[in-house]
Design a protein that fits this description.
The complex is a heterodimer of chains A (about 160) and B (about 290). Chain A is elongated, with a radius of gyration of 17 Å. Chain A has about 160 residues and is of the alpha+beta class. Chain A folds into 2 domains: about 80 residues, Beta-grasp domain (Ubiquitin-like (UB roll)); about 60 residues, Orthogonal Bundle (DNA polymerase, domain 1), CATH 1.10.150.120. Chain A contains 5 helices and 5 strands. Chain B is an alpha+beta fold and about 290 residues long. Chain B folds into 3 domains: about 45 residues, Uridine Diphospho-n-acetylenolpyruvylglucosamine Reductase, domain 2 (2-Layer Sandwich), CATH 3.30.43.10; about 120 residues, Uridine Diphospho-n-acetylenolpyruvylglucosamine Reductase, domain 3; about 110 residues, CO dehydrogenase flavoprotein, C-terminal domain (Enolase-like, domain 1). Chain B has a 5-stranded antiparallel beta sheet with strand order 4-5-10-6-7. Chain B has a 4-stranded antiparallel beta sheet with strand order 11-12-13-14. Chain B has a 3-stranded parallel beta sheet with strand order 1-3-2, covered by helices on one side. In chain B, α11 runs antiparallel to α12. At the A-B interface, β4 of A face β1, α2, β3 and α6 of B.
Chain lengths: ~160, ~290
């Protein structure tokens, strides 16, 4: 039999800054961010990879932070929704477009949506409506509806929204 | 939902990983992308006492495309496979299948070997492996290397022929030589990216006259494992794939499926879907321009 696991120190580069905490091996990346670093921008929804609320960028690519253990990410670079704005007190172009197009209501899915759409625009600066819907296909919204989110991404990419 | 406590070791080499799997057997589980295993752990359907992280082993990553087969390290990410143009020319069914797998966030992390080892009977990559008759390479400390065909690897839902001390290390995907190779993959799921209620896949090779020279086809989500039908595929060879032939073959395949019933769909509906989807992929592959530009 294995000895019961003891907490271990893990260091992850979060939004450009190395951050360290002592965690149980079973601590997921999203719990590490929220409970140990106090970065509560990343939300926890389903905790098993369905809803997309916990999306973050890992080495620049969107992943679900509930389906990764913090220990697996040791030494790697993570960007959360807190890291998307250019400076404290400011919003990114995409975040402003979300406000403009009323792409959020309760805000629960918003951090995950922003991460997914940020990644899309980084890869594809002028996405089609179909490409936007594909990019947010792994993120559930239960109130605003997806149309305004699609409109916001169009707006952020300098394209006219279908339903203004 | 949080996973039960476990110990974690990041393997420093494949030998290190195999030593740990040999020492702890059924208590240990290799973790790669974790896109199947971590949700299972969160729901307490899996409770490994030790996770052996094989993500950072370069020996298990990457693809080498040869004339007869493409050898893929088991922890090659699904997204990397999707974006590999040379692999797409060599094994076109992979990208067609991946278009239905999860979402960008899960494909960035999920691995091909992980999906195969998880062996969900509705998953797309196991179906592609069965249709193409891929070879799965397993390694263990005591047994060395063992090679199994996909048909022998998948035994039942979430059950494979891999022993507790074995680690899936590579997958060999057959490359069909010559021009005229086309494929198609279709499924019906509650939401795009979810596991299929029913799925169908085929890869065919047509000569210059449009006559089928080689074919492989199969169904997913309608039995305890993915199903391939080499005998039905052989019936297509030497013939043009027209509406009636596609219908006959699709119905014959669906008749051999053993779908289950759940709240989303009963067995009869799944069998109906299987026939519709298989007919559709055969006609689409037969009519599509072979090896479309990338």
């Amino acid at each position: 039999m294995l000895a019961p696991p003891s907490p271990v120190t893990v260091e992850i580069i979060v939004n450009g800054t190395p951050r360290r905490a002592c965690v149980e091996p079973r601590t997921t990346l999203v719990d590490f961010l929220r409970e140990h670093l106090g970065l509560t921008g990343t939300h926890i929804g389903c905790e098993h990879g369905i809803c997309g609320a916990c999306s973050v960028l890992l080495e620049g690519e969107p992943v679900r932070a509930c389906c990764l253990f913090a220990l697996q990410v040791e030494g790697l670079s993570v960007t959360t929704v807190e890291g998307l704005a250019p400076a404290r007190g400011e919003l990114s172009r995409l975040q402003n477009a979300f406000c403009e197009a009323h792409a959020l209501q309760c805000g629960y899915c918003t951090p995950g949506m922003l991460i997914a759409c940020h990644d899309l625009l980084a890869r594809n600066p002028r996405p089609s409506e179909e490409e936007i819907r594909e990019a947010i296909g792994g993120n559930l919204c239960r109130c605003t509806g997806y149309q305004q989110i699609v409109d916001a991404v169009k707006l952020a990419s300098g394209q006219e929204a279908a339903h203004g | 939902m949080k996973a039960a406590p476990f110990a974690y070791v990041r393997a420093e080499s494949l030998d290190h990983a195999l030593d740990l799997l040999a020492a702890y057997g059924g208590e240990a589980k290799p973790i790669a992308g974790g896109q199947s295993l971590v949700p299972m752990m969160a729901m307490r359907l899996a409770r490994p006492a030790l996770l052996v992280d094989i993500n950072r082993l370069p020996a298990l990553k990457g693809v080498a495309v040869g004339p007869r087969c493409a050898v893929m390290g088991a922890t090659t990410r699904q997204r990397a496979v999707e974006e590999d143009a040379a692999l797409h020319r060599a094994v076109p069914l992979l990208r067609a299948a991946l278009a239905w797998v999860g979402h960008v966030q899960t494909r960035n992390r999920g691995t091909v070997g992980g999906s195969l080892a998880h062996a969900d009977p509705s998953a797309e990559l196991p179906l592609a492996a069965c249709v193409l008759d891929a070879t799965l390479v397993l390694q263990s400390r005591a047994g060395g290397e063992r090679r199994l065909s996909a048909a022998d690897f998948f035994l039942a839902p979430m059950v494979t022929a891999a022993e507790e001390a074995e680690c899936l290390t590579a997958i060999e995907w057959p490359v069909w030589e010559g021009p005229g190779v086309a494929c198609a993959f279709e499924e019906v799921a509650i939401r795009h990216g979810d596991f299929a209620m029913a799925a169908a896949a085929c890869q065919i090779q047509l000569d210059a006259d449009g006559v089928c020279r080689r074919a492989a086809l199969g169904l997913g989500g309608v039995a305890g494992t993915p199903l391939a039908f080499p005998d039905l595929a052989a019936q297509l060879e030497g013939r043009r794939i027209h509406e009636r032939l596609a219908q006959e073959v699709a119905e014959a395949a669906a008749a051999r499926s053993e779908p289950g019933s759940d709240t989303h769909a009963d067995a009869e509906y799944r069998r109906h879907l299987a026939a519709v989807l298989l007919r559709r992929v055969l006609l689409r592959a037969a009519g599509a321009p072979a090896r479309a530009p990338i």
